Amino acid sequence: MLVTVRGELQAVFGTGEYVLHLPAGNDIKALFANSRQPVFDDTAAVQVWAKTQPALVAEHFECVEAGADELKLYFVGGKLAGYIAPDTRTYFWKQAAAPYAIQTVDLKNSLRIDADMQAKLKAADFWRSSLADIVYFFQVPAQHQGLLYINQELQPVLPAGEYYYWSANRELQAEIIDLRPQTCEIFGQELLSEDKVTLRVNAVCNYRITDAPLWLAQHREPEQYLYRELQFAIRAVVGGKTMDQLLADKQAIDAELSAAMRAKHLRGIEISDAGVKDIILPGEIRSILTRVVEAEKSALANNIRRREETASTRSLLNTSRVMEENPVALRLKELETLEKVTEKIDKISVYGGLDGVLNGLININTPKP
């Protein structure tokens, strides 16, 4: 129990029963403090009392002060319980119910939290307490790189893993960079071909970041910069070709576009390939091309039909020559014709026996010389 007179500390009493003479009109107050928590909450009040009653404050309180580049951690019962920020002080009860210990962290030499302290932070569930205000945590996945900025100054590149840093009186920012192949795409880019035809082009560029600090340091918005460079390359490739050339050999266009992107020598990334996904023609141009294709296909069909008719006529001519020179072949043709006729006739009346069928029903007369 703390007894104050007009805000000034007069006495501190521990566990027990007391009878106090409190004269009227002196603005006397009795404050009860929980000594199970070693930290006294009202630091400002203790600082005032230390000026007027230094001996009394020194008897019951311990002042712990952290320097400009120091962080004080205090443990209660062996468990991390809180911290003292740089350039601040905190008062502890000397008669605290639970023992406490103070550990100093030097922020000047390193902000990285070692594995032992990480275990203590996790055991204290730091993310659910005030300790979360002074711990900066981030994770770098596999096939990624981590870029850490301390007070806007880039630190060495970090590989995959978990990282804990003290963030007291420091500005920390982490950026995770994906090192896997990535894609930059352009949709519906309107371009003018060499023969003055307006086209809409969809293009893609596949790349991979090889040096993240270099790639990010050169440009404020690296993705937008790559997008614009791909636009310039497409205009150079498409603008130098006619519509027929663009539609004739797409692989050659892809190869030329890839070479144009690699020739830019973009630092920090590696261009694997680039290409045109789609070339969209205006409606009237598509109609004209449709009619051209229909005419070409129709002409091709007519040529094929004429070739087939010529071949059929030639086959008939050869067959007629064989039958003219060979009576047996002529007779076989008559029987073949008879077979086809009888397949389509439901009923046949025959006179003269088998000879009437074989000789009278079908008879191919050979021309007389």
Strand content: 25-35%
Percent range of helical residues: 25-40%
Shape: elongated
Largest sheet: 3 strands, antiparallel
**For the terminal residues, how far apart are their CA atoms?**
149 Å
Arithmetic mean pLDDT: 84
DSSP summary, beta strand count: 16
- What's the CATH architecture of the domain at 181-281? 2-Layer Sandwich
Q: What structural category characterises the helix and strand content?
A: alpha+beta
Order of helices and strands: EEEHHEEEEEHEEEEEEEHHHHEHHH
Report a brief summary of the structure.
With 369 residues, the chain is of the alpha+beta class.
General description of the model:
The strands form six sheets. The chain has a three-stranded antiparallel beta sheet. Strands 6-5-8 form a three-stranded antiparallel beta sheet, with helices on one face. A three-stranded antiparallel beta sheet has the order 11-10-13, with no helix packed on it. The protein has helices spanning 43-52, 54-60, 115-123, 212-218, 222-239, 243-248, 250-262, 283-325, 327-343, 353-361; strands at residues 2-5, 8-12, 28-31, 61-65, 70-76, 79-84, 89-93, 100-106, 135-140, 144-150, 153-154, 161-166, 172-178, 182-192, 198-209, 269-280. Among the domains are: 1-66 and 82-97, no CATH class; 181-281, Tetrahydropterin Synthase, Chain A, CATH 3.30.479; 286-359, no CATH class. A hairpin with a 2-residue loop joins strand 10 (144-150) and strand 11 (153-154). The chain starts with a strand and ends in an 8-residue tail after the last helix. The chain has ten helices and 16 strands. The mean pLDDT is 84. With 369 residues, the protein is of the alpha+beta class.
